[in-house]
Amino acid sequence: MFAANYTGGSVTYPMFFDSPDDNETFNNIEATYMLGDALKISPVLMSNATSNETHSSYFPQGIWRDVFNYSNVVNMSEGGGY
Hints:
The protein is an alpha+beta fold and about 80 residues long. The chain has one domain: Golgi alpha-mannosidase II (Immunoglobulin-like), CATH 2.60.40.1180. About 10% of the residues lie in helices and about 20% in strands. The chain has 2 helices and 5 strands, in the order αβαββββ. It has a 3-stranded antiparallel beta sheet with strand order 1-2-3, with no helix packed on it. The protein has a two-stranded antiparallel ribbon with strand order 4-5.
């Protein structure tokens, strides 16, 4: 957030700004975005409360942690995946 304030950039931006070499981040431009430089947001935009549907989200290469308890939730050190 400091960088956005200092440079005049946006606080929210698409994931391909951080991972321009990962083509899958271009395909998920409408489903996932970054809030600052550390929070990945993947909202459920359409849901049917009566069904048992699941929501998948793409994670670029890296180690992604849960914001609430910092446990190692997704390890994509070899490459991106869902």
